[in-house]
Every structure is written in structure tokens, then in C-alpha cells.
């Protein structure tokens, strides 16, 4: 056979080849182009140097008559050109180029030019290759393509506005690393999201309102004040002021549709960015697949570039590693009695958690149902009166905020009692805290909207005669429906109060805990060994998500809430930034998913769903208040869309439309739809878990095949008669060659 | 003198240090835009002891490169400089420097980052991450706190067990790539922002 004289690089198990990166020669050799039947020969490898091999391969490649190397072949060879210091890449390329003509030549050049960037060569060489390839004709064509590419790139990089606060974030990254930076980038995303929302709402709802000139709600004929913020209650911040008729522009319709549009935009943005990130991550959220390999090679964060930052990062790495090693060791059989004890403790703590959730829900509901005495704030009263007034007004918001502070800390303590692995511990705490946040939000909003219901069961009258009402109901609380004054405003105000109190609590906690501890540590006043407080990314992110949920809840009741959120996020950013720079250290334990950022988007999406549904329910079920707001004359808010309103009186030939719509909304249709959707979800879950199982199986097969191949070749080598120079080969060398070949072929697939 | 005047004016006409052809080439061969290339050149100049005399052919020595703030405290700075130095003696021209920053930038694709990461972590340059390489890597990563010998052994053994599929007691490039493509954190860790 003509290949007998060809040489072959064989690797001995313990012998390192003479040149650098020599091991990849084998991979390079075993491409389809150069496939050959290697069971028929084996070679003396001991005296070989890599230049012999390359020489022979080159001569062999020339002996393949008529087989020109394509662009991808050449690129492939270039990738391994560090093996071959004599490879004259330019010569090869210009030769091949000369052999081709016309259209082939052009395509060859383009392929090379596109692929050359991905090859790991020094820049000098790449430039030389480019010089050979580029001629005027190719340039002209590529210029058109590349202009588009360059433009898209520069657009991505050049817009400085989207990179607001970039320098501050970089400064933080230098010390804290990417995890903490991801919190701040998430904050920035929320900032822009709220800004866009606020601008859209303002321009479609606020501007028309401004043109009417009415900045404050006119309450002369009502006599009853309901607002808690003085003049602000009647301003454009809240629902009440928006009128139902503006010249030539239907403000109610615009109000309703803009709100829907903004929500749709939000969910589209969230879903699409989650989709993109998920695709990029290639389904690799299973963090426990290769814990050691990943922590060795992927943990170290190259973006940290301060000495203290690197030191803390490496310390965290060390602790993380030691923990992982302990975890491995601790997977021993636990005594039966100890297991029982652990399970009992877990049961107890779960019961406590449920109790806490139920208790806080009831507390919020109870406080919301308390009717505040409606009194004017008179600043001439003495301080006690003022304090009582403030207490009564901010009671609900304070309760919700304090619960939000206290209950997650209790959860953190509880989970220690349950003796989980550290990572599971973190997941449990995260899940419980998220669930608590959502539950408190839902209870809050439902108990507030109960105020919109009529207490004595009457249907609210749509045509109200305000002049006759106040004389009866100016002093007592609402016992009749007609005096449910502007419940949307009340709800909006409560949410606004909650946002303010939330911000206040966040700043207060930050100052009390982080800054004060930092001052103690620096001045060493406390004798005990205290360290700076850590920047806990997860709870900060949950706070942000909670705040955003509040904003989404309130968007219907107060269109400019988004702009309030913008201001709030601005304050929060700088507050957190300065606290982080002066009083925080990087977190010692890292939550794995937090670097990629798609986890935050997922939380945000869930929050959006959970905040959209109650408001939609309110829209559908509750009657808008009769004396304020754009929907004052309507029976239901959505009837502002004429089509839906006129459903009641359609021509008889279209009445089947109404019947159909009514039918769809009944349980007979909805329940099967829900069941079908659940089945679909289950189906996809089963599919994905079976793919996972397939992956595991294939991996096992891969390892198994390696072992079997080696044994086979070993046996063959031992039993084969000596073929000339075979005498010097050993079984392991042949095995090494085989394993490298099969591994290369399988992996590069 | 005319050339001196031109080289001093760095942002003026856009392509005053580089010809249009060179700038196009750099833009095509790296993952930077023209503006970023100028920015990288400015940083390169700032590292030189005599910034005014810097041309494209200037070579920065190893110690001058180590002064770059982004890699000054990096435990792997010697490997980074060695891998990207085209002459192999730890000195870099501007083109090498540009290459390095391009690989570490946000827009570089995963494949090229994995390739260079493998070279950086391969201390003995034998195209495989063997036990000695892993040992050195752990030493660099643990910094001042050393791992005990048994812990180190256990760790190396665990890594080899997880990732070495062909039982040659080390990670080849294919195995390394196989593991790193599955981890989304790799891209966020392995980057340096200028």
C-alpha cells in the first residue's frame, strides 16, 4: 500500500512529545480528507520529530492528485499551524488561489476572509494572509457586506445613552466582580424599562390632559376630601383627574388602550430577552453537572482588577472549593435516628413558614379593612395629633414594609435548622421569600379593592347626582354605594405610599446595617471581631423585583407611576453604589445563576404575570367610580371600547357573535382549555427530561466505547505478527493512537 | 517631520496613525470597532515609557505590560502575556496587544475564548491539561490560602474523573471545550473590559 512509508505520530502514555502542542497533531491528521486504514500498519515513533511528520503529510497531500484544498481545509490547517513552523501559509494560499478561477476564486477568497478572524494566529500573520487575498474586486463586494456589519456593530457600541452609569459599574466590577455588577445592570434595565413606559403613558394620557388645562381635580361640589397627599392627590399623578371628554380626542379610550399596550410591550420585551438568553445558554442550567471542572476553570473572574478585589475573590473561591470537597465527603450514610430528627425539624420549620405566611396575609387584610377616619391634617394641632394622623394614614404601608423586612430574615434563620446542603439552602430561602413577596402583594391589592365593593350589596348607580349626595353622607363612612368616592384614587395612593415607605425602609436599613457596621469596623469601637457586611445580591434583586411589581400594579391607577419609579431607581442606584463602595465586601457565597442575568428576567416575568392578573380582574369585575376618572360614565372600564360596549345591542344577524363570545367565557370552554394547556406543559417537560436522560446515556456510551476500543486494539497489537518496524511499538502506544483518533473524530463532530 | 506631526494627532482625522486599509483590516480581524481600536492604541501608548515615541512597531517589554491595570493583579498575567506574545519572549507589539484585547472583549465568540483559555491554563504547553497543570492552576487560584495536600489530590482527582473521557490522565482540548461550552458563566468570567 502506498501509505506504508507514511509516518504517523503515536503517543506514548507517559512520553510528552518534543514540540509544544504536539498532541494536536493527531487530531489534525485524522480528518476525513486524510483518512486511511490504520489497522494495517503501525510505525516506529521513537525517533520521529514533528517536522518529519509534517513533511510527510505535506508530501502526501501533494500526492493526492487533483485534490485542491478548499478554504475550510486551509483554515483548518492554519489552526494547527503552531505545530508546523515551516508551514508557509501564504504560499499555500496563493498557490491555491492561482489554481482557481472566476466564481470559485471569489468564493474561496470570501471564505478565507470570513474565517480568518476565528483562527488563533498572531495578528501579523493574519494581516499577511489578508493582504494576499484581498484584491479590488473582492473588496468592492465585501465592502457592501461589511458596511452593514460595521454599522450594526457601531450602533451597538456607540449609543452612549444606553450605557448610562457604565463607568460606575466598571469601578464596582473591578472590586466586586461580575455578580454584583449584574445587579446594577439589572437595575439599569429596569430604569430604562420604566422610562420608556412612563414616556409612552405620559405622551398619550398626560399630554391630552394637560391641554385641557385642568391640573387639579375640581371638588367644589363634592365637599368630601379623600386624598391623603393634599394637593398631590388630585393631580395628574392619580387616576381621578383624567376627564372623560377632551375635544376631539377620546381620553378614556386612550387611557385604556395605552395601558394595555404598555403591558404588552413589557411582556414582549421580557419574553424575547429571556428567549435570547436561554438560547445562548444552551440548556445548561443544571449546575451540578461538573461542579469541580467548572469551578476550576470558569470561576475566576477576569474582570476584577483591584488587588483587594482579587484577594477577596480568591478567598471566596477557596471557601467555595473547600465546601464542595466537604460536600463530597459528607455523602455518607446518616444514622437512622439522626435522619428522623432532621425530617422532624424540617416538618416543624415548614409548618412555621406556612403559619408565618398565613399570619402576615391576615394581618395585611385586617389592617386594610380598617377604615381610616377621614380628617384633615391641620398643622395647628399638637404633635401627638399629627403623629396619630400619620400613623393612621401610613398604617397599611408600614405594616407591609415591616413584614417584608422581618419575615425573610426569619426564613433565613429557619432554613439553618433544616440542615440542607448550602446550595439547596439558598434555593429554599429564595423560593420562600419570593413566594412571600407575591403573596403579600396579592393580599394587599385584593384587600384594597374590596373597598370598591358596595358594603351593603347595592349596585352602584351610574347616573349620580352629586348635588344631592353630600348632604347625607358628609360625616359618616361609606354605608351607601354612591359615596365610594374615587376608589381608584385610594388604591393608587396606597400603592404610592407603599412605594415611598419601601424606599424609606431600604435606605434606613442600608444606613443602619451596612454603614454603621462599616463605621464600627473602621474605628474598631466594638471589641468583637466584626467584618464589613456583604453585598447580598439575591435579596437586593428580590427587592428590585418587588418594587417593579408594585409599579406594575399601580400603573392602571396612576399613569405616572412609572416616572415615579424612574426617580426611585435613580436614588436607589446611587445609594447602593455608595454603600457598596464604602461599606460592603463581595459576597462570600455566590448564587450560581446570578451571573447570567436570565434568572432575574425570569423573576420579573413571573412578577409581571402575577401583577397583571389582579388588575385585569379588577377591570372586568369592578365598576369604575362614578365621580372621577375617565370611565365615570361606564358600567365597566373595558366598555370604553365601543365594540365591546355595543355588544349589548347588535343587529340580529350579528347576534351570534355575542352568543359566541358569551359562550366562550363560560366554564364549559375555559376548563377544557386549561386542561389542554396543562397537558401540553407536561408533555414538554417529559420530552425535555427524556432528552436529559439521552444525554447521560450517550455520555456513558462514549466513555464505555473508549475503554472497549482500547482493549480491542491492545489485543490486536499483541496478536499481530511483526510488520517490519512494528517491533518497536508497544501496545499502549497503539492504544494511545487509537484513543486519540476516536476521541478526535467523536469530539469534533 | 511630517510623519511625526501626523502620529501625534491621534484622534484628529480618524485614521491618522493607521492608514484606511490598516484600520479596515484591524476591524475585520478583531472584534472591535474603529473607535475601540483607537482607544486600545491609546492604552497601549500609555504603557510605554516614552509615549511620544510609540509607533506601530514598538515592542513593549514584559514588565511594562504587567503594569496594565486590567491585568496587573491577575494571577495569570504571565501566562496571558506569554500566550499572546507572537515572538514568544513575552514582549508584545501593538498588533499582539490588539489581538489580546480583542479576544477578551465582550464580542469575541465562545470558541475563540475557549481556545485561548486552554492555552493560558496549559502551563507546560503540551496541549493537554495534565495533573501538573491542574496543580499549578489550583495554586494560582487559591492565592495565599493553600489547600491541604489531600484536598488538592481529591480536587484534581475529581476534575479528572469528571472531564477526562479517554483516560489519558489529562484534559485534551476537545474535552475542555466540551465542558466549557456548557457553562454560560465562562463568557462572563473570561473577559476584560478596556
From TrEMBL, chain A:
Residues 486-594 form the TMC domain. Residues 1-26 are annotated as: Disordered. It is found in: Membrane. Residues 1-10 have a biased composition (Polar residues). One of its GO terms (molecular function) is mechanosensitive monoatomic ion channel activity. Keywords: Membrane, Transmembrane, Transmembrane helix. InterPro entries: TMC (IPR038900), TMC_dom (IPR012496). The chain crosses the membrane at residues 190-210, 256-276, 347-368, 394-415, 498-521, 550-578, 599-620, 663-684. Pfam families: TMC (PF07810). GO terms for cellular component: plasma membrane. Its main location: membrane. It is a multi-pass membrane protein. Belongs to the TMC family. This is TMC domain-containing protein.
TrEMBL record, chain B:
One of its GO terms (molecular function) is calcium ion binding. It comes from Magallana gigas. This is EF-hand domain-containing protein. Keywords: Calcium, Magnesium, Metal-binding, Repeat. SUPFAM superfamilies: EF-hand. It holds the Pfam family EF-hand_7. The keyword Magnesium applies. Residues 109-144, 151-186 form the EF-hand domain. CDD domains: EFh.
